[in-house]
Write a structure and sequence with these properties.
There is one protein chain. This protein has 385 residues and is an alpha+beta fold. The protein contains 12 helices and 10 strands. The strands form 3 sheets. Strands 1-4-5-8 form a 4-stranded mixed sheet. Strands 2-3-7-6 form a 4-stranded antiparallel sheet, with no helix packed on it. It has a two-stranded antiparallel sheet with strand order 9-10. A hairpin with an 8-residue loop joins β4 and β5. α8 runs parallel beside α10 and α8 packs antiparallel against α11. The longest helix has 37 residues.
């Protein structure tokens, strides 16, 4: 959001929080985003600077170094960060989803063991649900955790894992029981565990500033203290994490699109054609107005969903799915329009718009594809299983 828009509808503390995150994005993310994208550089040093502001444990308890903010606060933070780099903001959203899961479902010893490092970004985290043969049908995952003494032995492959190879902590969903969601259990795997390895860094359309690799589990032996929650509770843990993760990715889409829109306004104000400033064209002004209105409408739904999740409302999952779909579809469409308004210059990497478009495209796929978001909403409407 622009500086003036930040204050609208927000209390003083929330406006200050969003402004601080936008300042961080302007100083530490935006000037380097194009280089990180080109070089496939994952800036852990900058992520640790973000953690100094409390952004490594946005939702985690203060007793372990977290900021203990609400989901309504979180969407402001991630939108503001994404104005500097959607890829890095997106990883921070995923890391915070994992940290929240440890805080929410871990026992006292697990929280004391892992949360301080998570909140300080000394222990960056990855979320491991998707598999090569189980994408949208996550309950069909095949990675297994079989009894091994008083613990478990994990075998399987996770696919499209953000931060893999660079992260130190992996929240892994594996099957301990029969087919379906009731047979899944959550585990915490550390990077140094024997049997853990990673595939090559994927060559991607966007999100190049963070690595995406397979996570390979080959006889990884874990003690019982590495199980998060009870056996058979893993799928519910994974899905509850995704409610908040979907809000974060939706917010990142709006932040990237907002930056693209602001760049388009600046470009049209500077550019002349046929003897007049492009910004003076009524047709182009109307297009800008539509882009801004679409962003505000998606933002309103995102804020409503965040408030519902904060309140524990029964419709929260459905609203998070709606908001994720709407924000990611709108964000990509607005960024694409901003590129169009730049003409041929929008296609050049030096203007930064084509990177935003590439980064935002994947938001319509990750944290559950937008087709799955429609399925979740339809189930809520029809009562279907």
């Amino acid at each position: 959001m622009t500086g003036s828009a930040l204050a609208e509808g927000l209390g003083e503390e929330q406006a200050a929080l969003a402004a601080a995150a936008r300042d961080f994005a302007r100083e530490h993310l935006a000037p380097h985003a194009a280089d990180w994208d080109r070089d496939k550089h994952f800036p852990l040093d900058v992520l640790r600077k973000a953690a100094e502001m409390g952004l490594g444990g946005v939702y985690a308890a203060e007793e372990h170094g977290g900021s203990e903010l609400s989901r309504s606060d979180g969407v402001l933070v991630f939108e503001a960060l994404a104005t500097g780099c959607p890829s890095i903001a997106g990883y921070l959203s995923i890391h915070n989803m994992a940290a929240w899961m440890v805080d929410r479902y871990g026992d006292a010893d697990q929280r004391a063991r892992w949360l301080p490092g998570l909140c300080a970004m000394e222990t960056p985290a990855s979320y491991c649900l998707t598999e090569p043969g189980a994408g949208s049908d996550a309950a069909a995952l095949a990675a297994r955790a079989v009894p091994d003494g008083d613990g478990y032995r994990l075998d399987g492959v996770k696919q499209f894992i953000s931060g893999a190879g660079a992260s130190d902590l992996y929240l892994v969903m594996a099957r301990t029981g029969g087919p379906g969601p009731g047979g899944v259990t959550a585990f915490v795997v550390e990077r140094g565990d024997p049997g853990l390895s990673f595939g090559p860094n994927e060559s991607k359309m966007g999100w190049n500033a963070q690595p995406t690799r397979q996570v390979v589990l080959d006889g990884v032996r874990l003690g019982p203290e590495r199980r998060l929650g009870a056996e058979g509770q893993g799928f519910r843990i994974a899905m509850s994490g995704l409610d908040g993760g979907r809000l974060g990715i939706g917010a990142c889409s709006l932040g990237g699109a907002q930056a693209a829109l602001e760049a388009a306004v600046g470009y049209l104000a500077d550019r002349e054609a046929f003897g007049a400033k492009l910004i003076d064209s009524p047709a182009l002004r109307f297009r800008l107005a539509e882009m801004e209105t679409d962003l505000e409408a998606a933002r309103a739904l995102l804020w409503r969903a965040a408030a519902a999740l904060d309140a524990g409302a029964p419709q929260a999952t459905r609203l998070c799915a709606m908001a994720k779909r709407q924000a990611t579809e709108t964000g990509f469409a607005v960024a694409d329009q901003a590129l169009q308004l730049h003409g041929g210059y929008g296609y050049l990497s030096e203007y930064g718009i084509e990177k935003i478009v590439r980064d935002l495209r994947v938001h319509r796929i990750l944290e559950g594809t937008n087709e799955i978001m429609n399925l979740i909403v339809a189930r809520g409407l029809t009562g279907a299983a």
